Predict the 3D structure of the following.
Amino acid sequence: MSPLAMATAIARLDLVQVERIGFVAAFCTTTAFVPQLVRVLRLRSARDISLPTFLLFSIGVFLWLVYGILAGSKPVIASNTVTLLLSLSILFLKLKYDRTAMKEMKP
Amino acid sequence: MSPLAMATAIARLDLVQVERIGFVAAFCTTTAFVPQLVRVLRLRSARDISLPTFLLFSIGVFLWLVYGILAGSKPVIASNTVTLLLSLSILFLKLKYDRTAMKEMKP
């Protein structure tokens, strides 16, 4: 193997490793919201969860999805589609359970 | 302006626009966690917040940071550094307030 071919092979290996880290990162930040959704459903409460957080986060993830589509990046599209669905579900439950809690407080 | 120069200018404009969407997306998904941190501090409770969510999310954001460093992407480094600090703060408060709540429950 020539030094140039070796350097190219190492650079390609590095690129694959860096991409792999990106995939693991995307997997973590996406699946992270599954236990949050489960917890809210189980407790039937989202009192401590911030509404502006999940509103802003959903808008941000939606914009990441638009970015992914325009930039033609499949991993960005895939991970942000899943995160958006999870984030919107948590947002919906926050609104739902907060309304229920408000009703229960009234006599 | 030649058709090629015009096409290049349009393509560059598009790239700038796409990058701008990425920046707005990063701004949203980063600052989103500020109101969550404020809410937990204000309520002195993080009962409804999922521990595995913020644990997994922090690991994921840390890996995005590593990815950003290896890929040499300054926006990825900057946004994930801020998100990691916010995420770790929420995680720390979750552990702190849950421990306090546990102690108060014991006679």
About this structure: The helical segments of chain A are 3-31, 33-43, 51-71, 74-105. Chain A has a mean pLDDT of 91. The CA atoms of residues 71 and 77 of chain A lie 10 Å apart.
